Amino acid sequence: MLTLVKNAQLFSPEPRGLCHLLIADQRIAAVIDASEAVNLGPLISTVDLEGRRVIPGLVDPLVHYIGGGGEGGFGNRTAELSLQDAYASGVTTLIGALGTDALTRTPANLIGKARELLAGGLTAYAYTGSYQLPPVTLTGSIASDILYIPEFIGVGEVAISDHRGSQPTTQELTRLASDARTAGLLAGKSGIVFIHTGDADSHLEPLREVAKHSAIPLSQFYPTHINRTADLFEDGLRFAREGGFIDFTTSTTPELLAGGEVPASEAVARALKARIDPSQISLSSDANASLPEFDEQHRFVGLKPGKLSSLFEVLGECINEHHITMEQALRCASTTAADILKLPRKGRLEEGADADFIVLAEGRWAIDQVWALGKSIYGSNP
């Protein structure tokens, strides 16, 4: 059955005005101006949104959906992401990753959870590998994981400038990026190398060294946590000016903020003011990861879990507190990540795109409904 979602104040992410969305086979078959007459007969289900704002479903490039943590021992492992929390977050496309723990959590766990999320109506991909090198894989190599496993679209979260990483050399990072890039080309995937950036003074320099001494471009890397310290943020702006991508983390804690983290919405506003193009800026939640606190000797103090809901919350802060346009903010929360990860049907609401969208509540920043792959999965129209 076809579904006609009528009278949506549409942001695609660019503002489209009042439109109808015709949904067929999980995708948007047509975007119809509301002024046009529509008569599609009795075999169509109709939902009238009465002028409420509609935005693309969010694309989150870093979700630890099988949990993370463990830096303080087994009692500090964070929980897996539940379907209910995912539905309520407005995130309709999730990219899963391992983190510090690639011993008790494995690539096989990631694939199993990705398929659970898919069975629940969401879209889920994953990165093979983890913080450490040599990378953990499912098939024996990064290249074959990306080439043969549908869910694997790149490698990550590989740690640089962090005491918990394996301190990779330029040669090791170059080989990793080369393998991922070639496999991505062969598989028609991004082959991206998603980078966890720690707070060491080297910041993003290891990635520059790869680009300087090889044919691998900076854009092969996708570094996150760029707002974790003031110095890293400034280095991230320089990295973007040099042609790279930067990702800001929306989950935070009072301790991280007190330690100098730049709030994610402020980071977006400052990056845009610095004339960094929105196509180079994204937001990720780091959901269900541990957000650990260490003392000056790098001894573990404590941790809190990341929240998937933080992505939608920060999107609202960008718009309502920093007066970033809806279009620019949505690009950072959805479209940019989709483009970097080569997911062309995600992060936009246009003919041929997947029917993933959020219906905003009337007159306030809140989620009224979430639709994923053409079906309502959360809210007032279940």
UniProtKB/TrEMBL annotation:
Entry's localization field: Cytoplasm
Annotated cofactor note: Binds 2 Zn(2+) ions per subunit.
Binding site for Zn(2+) 2: H196, H225
Active site per the UniProt annotation: D286
Keywords assigned: Hydrolase, Metal-binding, Metalloprotease, Protease, Zinc
Cofactor needs: Zn(2+)
This enzyme's EC code(s): 3.4.19.-
GO terms classed as biological process: proteolysis
Domain of life assignment: Bacteria
Keyword Hydrolase: yes
Database matches in Gene3D superfamilies: Metal-dependent hydrolases, Urease, subunit C, domain 1
Residues reported in the UniProt entry to bind substrate: G69, G70, E71, T100, Y131, R164, R228, S290
Functional summary from the UniProt entry: Catalyzes the hydrolytic cleavage of a subset of L-isoaspartyl (L-beta-aspartyl) dipeptides. Used to degrade proteins damaged by L-isoaspartyl residues formation.
Protein name stated in the entry: Isoaspartyl dipeptidase
Organism: Halomonas qinghailakensis
Gene of this entry: iadA
